[in-house]
């Protein structure tokens, strides 16, 4: 099992110019975990669109079984090209199928999923942790729901006032105390620094319960639809 910092910097939807400066600020702040992906399109090498579309604008999925893809990823670890591999947006059924693979050589180190107080993911997190898979929470600060910024939720605001912290810091600390790695995205220097200042306080059990009770199973992350493919992770979102 490899170690991973509990707090990282998310770079999803940060433009190339923005992300460069954000990473510089984060490094100076003490971040050593950066969430990057070809799909984010904020690297100079990533200018071409990477999802093939049909004439109706629907994603054309691959027929390759993700277990076969995993074997190819395992070879990268065995050849010393990467240190660890994991998955993203996997539900329990998908992850269980991978973990129970007869000839599994390399365990998935993490399952990266959308997770915030309105989508607490309790069953999936418990399953992952029971099988030794670290959960990484993306979009931990939520976003807008019915025109309201999740950080303005009265419960979160009250807890933030109690600890003299920002709503974002409360939402990040919430994940840390659940044993979940968290990767809040920001390109604002002040917020990048603030999001890292979450190790000098601890939420009470009562406040953790109050945050868990905010759950609405609300998904905010959306992906292009896939044509006629029930298992494609960017079409009908899996129940994670």
From TrEMBL:
Gene3D superfamilies per UniProt: NADP-dependent oxidoreductase domain (3.20.20.100)
Coiled-coil intervals, chain numbering: none
Keyword Oxidoreductase: yes
SUPFAM superfamilies: NAD(P)-linked oxidoreductase
Keywords: NADP, Oxidoreductase
Residues of the NADP-dependent oxidoreductase domain: 62-211
Family label: Belongs to the aldo/keto reductase family.
PANTHER family (UniProt xref): 2,5-DIKETO-D-GLUCONIC ACID REDUCTASE, NADP-DEPENDENT OXIDOREDUCTASE DOMAIN-CONTAINING PROTEIN
The protein, known as: 1,5-anhydro-D-fructose reductase isoform X9
Organism of derivation: Erinaceus europaeus
UniProt gene name: AKR1E2
């Amino acid at each position: 099992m490899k170690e991973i910092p509990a707090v990282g910097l998310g770079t999803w939807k940060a433009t190339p110019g923005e992300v460069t400066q954000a990473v510089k600020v984060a490094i100076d702040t003490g971040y050593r975990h950066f969430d990057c992906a070809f799909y984010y399109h904020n690297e100079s090498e990533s200018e071409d669109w990477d999802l093939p579309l049909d004439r109706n604008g629907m994603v054309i999925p691959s027929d390759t079984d993700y277990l076969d893809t995993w074997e190819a990823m395992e070879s990268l670890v065995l050849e010393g090209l990467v240190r660890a591999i994991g998955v993203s947006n996997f539900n329990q059924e998908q992850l269980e199928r991978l973990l129970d693979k007869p000839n599994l050589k390399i365990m998935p180190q993490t399952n990266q999923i959308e997770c915030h107080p309105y989508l607490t993911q309790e069953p999936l997190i418990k399953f992952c942790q029971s099988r030794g898979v670290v959960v990484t929470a993306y979009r931990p600060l939520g976003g807008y729901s019915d025109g309201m910024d999740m950080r303005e939720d009265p419960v979160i605001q009250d807890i933030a006032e109690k600890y003299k912290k920002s709503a974002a810091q409360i939402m990040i600390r919430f994940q840390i105390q659940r044993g979940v790695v968290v990767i809040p995205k920001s390109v604002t220097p002040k917020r990048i620094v603030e999001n890292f200042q979450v190790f000098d306080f601890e939420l009470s059990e009562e406040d953790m319960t109050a945050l868990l009770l905010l759950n609405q199973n609300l998904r905010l992350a959306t992906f292009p639809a896939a044509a006629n493919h029930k298992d494609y992770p960017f079409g009908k979102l899996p129940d994670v």
